[in-house]
Specification:
alpha/beta, 6-stranded parallel sheet, globular
């Protein structure tokens, strides 16, 4: 048996990684060709410490860019560029891919994607948690149009994912976008919001909608099984829809049915969907929520490793925070939310149901630890502005209200449109999930801004700080994993998972999505109390060969594209 030394092993591993991206030749294979007389590039980035996205060790190199692609990589490239930028002292990595993002219609409000670009994000992967932009009923499309016109002055006229792609291409954006198709959206379109199994005809129609979305360029199927109407689907329905992906290599991504007391059963269901449908599985924002469930984290990781050994291609993603963010109505049991907002409010006011609902909510709060584990992030009503950014327990005491009564007041007066952050995870498990080889990095957030229409409320800091937090806090300071590993989890790994060929690596022939940052200074600044703060340490960001951030300053360029998986 021939043993490889470390350098040979790294090169062999990198070769396999490049092959996964449809790139046949690694950087070092192009060095002599460039010196031998290729024409000058449009731009040469000099003297970078290069992290190529494969997980290989960094090396010093120059990178030449011609139009939207990387044309050469190597130390001290001989030929000049029409323009040159000295990156001495900076790390250069592929642009970060947010594998689980909720930036979609926000790009029609403000295409600059400020809070994501300033983190180094160059590609958003949307359509998560079972919700995508289409297929929509006429009623939903019209209500969305009216809401966005009234609130933002933006005209949204679409019903399908293809319409969203077309409108975004016309509008332009600073970042690339790829989207899954949402199971919950498809179910709502075909079946409605009823708690019942789909009929055979409805199941066939849902499969048709998923097929159409994949043909249009969707990068997978997502489910949100804690949300309505996705929660009403059984295993048979999920398998039938996921099976549409068979042979494409695209994943079934799931916000599982439960992330706390029933975590093991939820993980088993997600794995079984992949096993029975014959498709890869991506578990969304994996966590063990509630202190009494923290012990389950390692066992869940063991279960994922066992499933992979048994032939199920399962991976996951996770954000670097101990709190999640969702709608305030997530505190209420699924059955109480069936039928929508009017039905929920009627049940809250009905003595036959109110007691059961209160008992379930108090159980959820006990899981989180206290009422102060719930922070109100947003309200649709300006009359409730006093609740934004406040912990529910403290706010109730301040206003002389019992916390559950205050919760019901908020949900009722805001017509179930309030958002929340829930503090339920441990720091130790957060680091464990981020570092595990099966895990990728995601924000589970949206592109926001420190001013303007996307600066409202007190959102989760992950919208502003996810990627710098991983690289600064977890890689550099806590040394949970090497920097090259953290970068791989937000570049090459998600690009391969979603079949985004030519993305997520730095190599000749790859697209010039790049981020240059200060490895000693990169850090997040957003906090739960003051989230609207950009990170520090991100110096340059390039999308498809054009700077969207240079020397820390934004440009006016909107070079982002719709990314469709490679067949």
């Amino acid at each position: 048996m021939t043993h490889l030394d470390r350098r040979d092993f790294v090169r062999a591993s990198a070769l396999m990684a490049y092959a996964a991206f449809g790139i046949r030749r690694p950087p070092w294979a192009f060095r002599n060709a460039w010196v031998g007389g290729f024409p000058a590039a449009d731009l040469v980035l000099r003297n970078a410490v290069l992290y190529d996205g494969t997980g290989a060790a960094p090396f010093e190199a120059d990178v030449a860019i011609t139009r939207d692609r990387i044309s050469a990589v190597g130390p001290r490239l001989a030929a000049p560029g029409a323009g040159e930028v000295d990156l001495k002292g900076l790390a250069l990595a592929p642009g970060f891919i947010d594998v689980h993002s909720h930036t979609d219609l926000e790009l029609l409000i403000d295409p600059a994607a400020e809070s994501k670009v300033r983190q180094g994000v160059t590609t958003e992967v949307t359509g998560q948690d079972g919700g995508s932009i289409g297929p929509w009923t006429t009623e939903r499309a019209e209500s969305t149009r009216e809401r966005y016109q009234a609130r933002y002055g933006v005209e949204i006229s679409l019903r399908q994912l293809t319409g969203f792609f077309r409108q975004l291409e016309r509008r332009g954006a600073a970042v690339n976008l790829s989207s899954m198709v949402g199971h919950g959206t498809v179910r709502g379109y075909v079946v409605g919001n009823e708690d019942r199994p789909a009929t055979p005809d409805e199941l066939s129609r849902m499969q048709g909608e998923v097929t159409a979305a994949i043909k249009a360029g969707a990068c997978g199927l997502s489910s949100g099984l804690e949300y309505l109407p996705g929660a009403f689907a059984d295993l048979q329905e999920l398998v039938a829809l996921a099976a549409v992906l068979r042979g494409t290599g695209l994943p079934y991504a799931s916000h599982m049915r439960n992330e706390d007391d029933q975590l093991f059963a939820a993980v088993e269901e997600a794995i079984n969907v992949g096993r029975l449908a014959g498709v890869p599985v991506q578990i969304s924002h994996l966590k063990a929520q509630g202190q009494r469930n923290w012990w389950k984290a390692q066992l869940v990781l063991d279960a994922l490793e066992a499933a992979r050994a048994d032939g199920v291609d399962v991976t996951y993603d996770r954000y670097p925070y101990v709190a999640y963010s969702t709608g305030l109505d997530s505190l209420f049991p699924v059955w109480s939310r069936e039928g929508g907002t009017d039905a929920l409010l009627e049940r809250l006011d009905n003595p036959d149901h109110a007691g059961r609902i209160e008992e379930a909510v108090r159980g959820k709060i006990a899981l989180l630890g206290s009422w102060d584990a719930v922070q109100i992030t947003s309200t649709a009503s300006e009359d409730l502005h006093w609740a934004r950014g406040r912990r529910l327990g403290e706010l109730a005491a301040e206003r002389g209200r019992e916390p559950y009564a205050l919760l019901v007041q908020l949900v009722t007066e805001d017509r179930n449109r309030s958002g929340m952050v829930g503090f339920g995870m441990s720091e130790e498990n957060t680091a464990r999930f981020l570092a595990h080889p099966l895990g990728m990095v995601c924000s589970d957030g949206s592109a926001l801004d420190v001013e303007g229409p996307l600066a409202a409320g007190t959102p989760h800091p992950r919208n502003y700080g996810t990627f710098p937090r991983v690289l600064g806090h977890y890689c550099r300071d806590a040394q949970v994993m090497p920097l090259e590993t953290g970068i791989h989890k937000m570049t090459g790994m998600p690009a391969a998972r979603l079949r985004l060929d030519g993305r997520g690596v730095i190599a000749p022939g790859a697209f010039a999505d790049l981020v240059a940052f200060d490895p000693d200074g990169i850090a997040d600044r957003a906090t739960f109390e003051h989230p609207h703060q950009y990170p520090v340490g991100i110096v340059h960001v390039m999308v498809n060969g054009e700077f969207v951030l240079t020397h820390g300053e934004r440009t006016d360029e909107l070079p982002g594209r719709i990314l469709r998986p490679t067949a």
